[in-house]
Amino acid sequence: MLRNLPRWLTQKGLVDEIHASGFEGRCDFCYVPQDFQSKVNHGHAFVNLTSPEAAAEFLREWQQKRHFSSAWRLQSPINISTARVQGLAANMSSPRMRRVRNSTFRPFVLEGRAAGLRIDARGP
After folding, report:
1. Residues paired with residue 80 on neighbouring β-strands, in sequence order
2. Which of 5, 82, 85, 120 is the most buried (most CB within 10 A)?
3. What are the residues whose beta carbons fall under 8 Å from the beta carbon of 114, sequence distance 6 or more?
4. What pLDDT, in 10s, does the model give residues 99-115?
5. Which residue windows are transmembrane per the record (predicted)?
6. % the chain with pLDDT above 70
7. Stretch (H or E) spanning 109
8. Contact 115, 99 (CB under 8 A)
9. Phi, psi for residue 2 in degrees, rounded to 5
10. Three-class SS string for 22-80?
11. Which residues pair with 41 in a beta bridge?
12. What average pLDDT score do residues 73-94 get?
């Protein structure tokens, strides 16, 4: 779980930053909860990495990160903690994900990784 994300950051923007930092293909799930009316995020996100090694490397590189490649400087550093739900399948089948009907608000799932999971959540 990533905390202290700027409210202007979109899910696509976060995924792009994750990929730009060397984790393309190693991040298979990203969900940035948003307010359905204002479409502004809640300041946190859930990210799943494909291996414990990738997760450890992501933690080293992103914990306390203060800027993005787009040159935006963050007011508060990113704080990473272990989420209660772990793994792609568990994240995809959580009750929270089943409630998201609008494709605009669905999580990013790495193409090909969602095969055989209960909901279709290709994301934007």
Report:
1. 2
2. 5
3. 88, 92, 120, 121, 122
4. 555 555 566 675 655 54
5. none
6. 65
7. strand 108-109
8. no
9. -105, 130
10. HHCCCEEEEECCECCCCCCECCEEEEEECCHHHHHHHHHHHCCCCECCCCCECCCCCEE
11. 34
12. 74
Place of tokens 């293909």: 25
Q: What is the mean pLDDT of residues 7-36?
A: 88
The closest of 67, 50, 59, 46 to 3, measured between CA atoms, is: 46
pTM of the model: 0.72
Q: With DSSP H G I counted as helix, E B as strand and the rest as coil, what are the percentages for the chain, rounded to 5?
A: 30, 15, 55
User: What six digits make up the tokens of 13?
Assistant: 């923007």
| Residues 58-64, mean pLDDT to the nearest whole number | 92
Which residues contact residue 96 at a Cβ distance below 8 angstroms, ignoring those fewer than 6 apart? none
d(CA 21, CA 17): 6
